[in-house]
Specification:
Layout (H helix, E strand, L loop, with lengths): L2 H17 L4 H17 L1 H20 L5 H7 L6 H14 L7 E8 L2 E9 L2 E6 L4 H12 L3 E5 L5 H16 L12 E4 L2 H7 L8 E5 L2 H8 L14 E5 L8 H10 L8 E7 L3 H13 L4 E4 L1 H8 L8 E3 L13 E7 L2 H11 L4 E5 L3 H10 L4 E4 L8 H4 L6 E3 L7 E3 L5 E8 L18 E2 L6
Parallel strand pairs: 3-4, 3-6, 4-5, 7-8, 7-12, 8-11, 9-10, 9-11, 12-13
Antiparallel strand pairs: 1-2, 1-17, 2-16, 14-15
Helix pairs in contact: 2-5, 2-7, 3-7, 5-6, 6-7, 10-11
Length: about 450
Amino acid sequence: MSEEIIKIAEQARQASLVLQSSTTEQKNATITKIREFLEKDKEAILKANQQDLEKAKVEVDAGRLSASLFKRLDLSRGDKYQALLEGVTDVVKLPDPTGKITLATKMDEGLELYRVTCPVGVLLIIFEARPEVVVQISCLAIKSGNAVILKGGKEAYNSNIALYKSLQNAISSLPPEQAIPLASVQLVSSRDEINELLGLDQYIDLVIPRGSKKMVRFIQGSTRIPVLGHADGLCSTYVDEFADIQKSPKVVTDAKVNYPAACNATETLLIHSAVLQSQLPAIAKSLVAQGVHMRADERALAVLKSTDIAPDMYQAATPEDFDTEFLELTIAVKVVDSLQEAIAHINLHGSHHTESIITENKENAETFMAKVDAAGVYWNASTRFADGFRYGFGAEIGVSTNKTHARGPVGLEGLVIYKYKIYGSGNAVGDYGAGKRSYIHSKIPIDQE
């Protein structure tokens, strides 16, 4: 274990102890300053990002880097940079998640118990080709009182460095009364450093990987530190027999094409056999108009062949297609004969991320949402809504399919745990028992205002 890595972890631990007692005003001042510096440094950051894009394009052309990863790398795409800045401001506006009383009990006269939210401690965030994560995670970590160690993918090396420098300059520019430790946010670069950090469970409290299934699986199997995240984003949309033809093409198309490389994009379309003839042609034409290729099972393929859709836009599906996260303009199509069959397929082949049903039948919708085992279950809405920003969480730390304290899009609430505080007056356990004092255990009204 290198001394440098141990020093990074130790500094993060010390910073986390300071952050635990930082005020909301201090944390908000830091995040506001971060936005100010990101706006000032935009030109330099995008220039660094362009260097990464040029190198990545060579890798894409050589077949060594996927097109989906390349898209995630681009900070200048559309309104991505502006959205990044707005996400920072949104974090400032969010309530401080720490110091909230979630339980208050009067155990006895002069003996009170409180459960209070507090930071997790030190976070290790490992991500691929998403340079904006440097900013999103840092702001969420600061707001929730956590220190963070970041490791980005080599594809985004220059972008990550530029963003990190901007953040560090912002933190160091604060006056002493608002300052937080510089080590609250640290960046490491090499894979060897990550392998070492994964062994430092005495300093690091939570690992959050954001990237490929291979990367997430590797991390999950390489550390004793708790890991929050998901390895796959294999989402499905089910068109029920009571689906509205005015809604299904729009919802399915958005779920597939809005951002195909995202983990919440729909990869499988399930359609009830009773509406196969009426629904699939309209949905398929909407998808094809956006460049989507379909991999259809036997019954769906027969319907597609009866339309005027170009034959090169669809092909027969293989069993593997229904277990594939395409992350591009490709979708698997399967016909089912019942709601229960759709639910069974999703629970067997899905990744417990986000699933949607399109139907006008409330009972079917509620059954679907109750029986599908996923972090997000939607009724007549695109799977692309599975996002911390869209949920109103501000920037997102990641998406978790874990069945732990945080599930689905994880914002600030996923970065706090709690501690129990007892306020006594010289009480001893030996004072209680048969023939002695009895516990009251009455609720204390909680006033957070």
